[in-house]
Design a protein that fits this description.
Layout: E1 67-70, E2 77-83, E3 86-91, E4 116-121, E5 126-132, E6 137-139, E7 144-145, E8 152-155, E9 160-162, E10 179-181, E11 187-189, H1 194-200, E12 207-213, E13 218-222, E14 231-233, E15 243-247, E16 250-255, E17 270-272, E18 284-287, E19 290-295, E20 305-308, H2 337-344, H3 348-355, H4 362-369, H5 373-382
Parallel strand pairs: 7-11, 13-19
Antiparallel strand pairs: 1-2, 2-3, 3-4, 5-20, 6-7, 6-12, 8-9, 8-15, 10-11, 12-13, 14-17, 15-16, 18-19
Helix pairs in contact: 2-3, 2-5, 3-4, 4-5
């Protein structure tokens, strides 16, 4: 287990409880958070959520209806409106809690306000089929969950290992919230954040509602870590010779892979074993007849797949035209050139040079690399 992952504990002194109501909560509780000290928004109100400039008390509900968060200390501005079957989230994506220092030695970026809009189902449909997803959802404060990375270790013998965000081998600049910053200034969570749960806890219950999945199901944290992941470390040793680290635009030194023991550094170190824990392959389960996702201390930390109907699309807004990138600058939604080049048997520099500035001329690039256009397209698609 990574030393970056702390035991999940609560500091009751941190919670603002003066305006709380004494209520027992459940995953389908319909209480609504207060947005100021004078009024509470009704869960079914049709009005647009209002924001205020004072510190917001966030202890009174599970955010199922209309609500807003306006935090003068941290700059958070998030408004959520439920209209028919759609939950609309408009946010500047600034967290409403303390963060680490950015830039730092592993992350060269500074946190900045975004202008994001998400539309998720308000009445989710559970299909039971797991579908991979890059951004599985958004926290109730407007900060996105994005557990995967674009960092890789690629071997000359054909193996490619995806580096995990939460590990101790490579410094990706994670802070105390298991989060860091993309070049766009977007702060995002790779794992469990104690402060996110502390700020949004509103009772003595074990489950804390902390987010919305892209398929409309709710995302929770268990403060007692009651629900165990069903992923286990592989027992077989890793393979691969002459392996090179690609940290976005930076190339790292060769690293030894062959014969090393899976320890969680790479995504492929883990395998799903149905029934070995309480949660399914998407870190989800049914509680009180409601399907929901859990953020856990253990891999996969935050779900990498969803089991409801959803359309994964980038949030709209001024930043939406910028291709989402991880903290080192790697394109997350685009192809990983280190992976694609290994598949094609060329160097990453050769592939990058052949593609040139976007949009690439695939036919010309393939010709210069000595491969077919179909092979180039396939390698780029498989690397995403």
């Amino acid at each position: 287990m990574s030393t970056k992952l702390k035991k999940f504990t609560f500091s009751l002194a941190f919670l603002v409880v003066a305006a709380c109501t004494a209520a027992t909560t459940s995953p389908n509780a319909a209480q609504t958070p207060t947005t100021n000290t004078a009024a509470t928004t009704s869960p079914n109100a049709a009005q647009t959520p209002t924001t205020n400039t004072a510190q917001t008390n966030l202890q009174a509900g599970s955010y199922l209806g209309n609500y807003s968060i306006s935090d003068a200390v941290f700059g958070t501005q998030t408004a959520v409106t439920v209209s028919g079957d759609t939950r609309i989230i408009i946010t500047n994506a600034l967290p409403n809690h303390e963060t680490g220092l950015f830039p730092n030695s592993g992350n060269p970026n500074s946190i900045s306000a975004q202008s994001d809009r998400y539309e998720y189902p308000a009445n989710p449909t559970h299909t039971g089929a797991a579908t991979e997803v890059r951004v599985p959802g958004v926290a109730v404060n407007g900060v996105k969950f994005e557990p995967g990375t674009a960092e890789t270790v690629t071997c000359a013998t054909g193996e490619t290992y995806r580096v995990e965000g939460l590990q101790d081998t490579f410094n990706l600049g994670m802070d105390l919230n298991n989060a860091h910053v993309q070049p766009t200034g977007a702060y995002h969570y790779h794992g469990l954040s104690d402060l996110l749960a502390e700020v949004h806890a509103y009772s003595g219950g074990d489950l804390v509602h902390v987010g919305f999945a892209a398929d409309g199901h709710l995302i929770y944290i268990s403060i007692t870590n009651t629900y165990a992941s069903s992923y286990q470390l592989l027992a077989s040793l890793r393979t691969g010779n002459n392996c090179n680290v690609s940290l976005g635009g930076r190339q790292g030194p060769n690293t030894v892979v062959r014969g090393t023991v899976p320890n969680g550094t790479y995504t492929s170190d883990w395998e799903y074993l149905a029934g070995s824990g309480d949660l399914d392959e998407c870190n989800g389960t049914f509680i009180e007849d409601h399907y929901l996702y859990l953020i856990t201390n253990e891999f996969p930390y935050i779900s990498r797949c969803l089991k409801g109907e959803f359309n994964e699309s980038r949030p709209s807004g001024p930043n939406s035209e910028q291709v989402p990138r991880d903290q080192t600058g790697s394109t997350l939604s685009g192809p990983n050139l280190a992976v694609a080049s290994a598949q094609l048997g060329v160097t990453e520099t050769q592939l990058r040079g052949a593609l040139g500035p976007p949009p690439p001329d695939i036919e010309a690039a393939a010709s210069s690399l000595g491969v077919t256009a179909d092979a180039l397209r396939a390698a780029l698609d498989r690397s995403r």
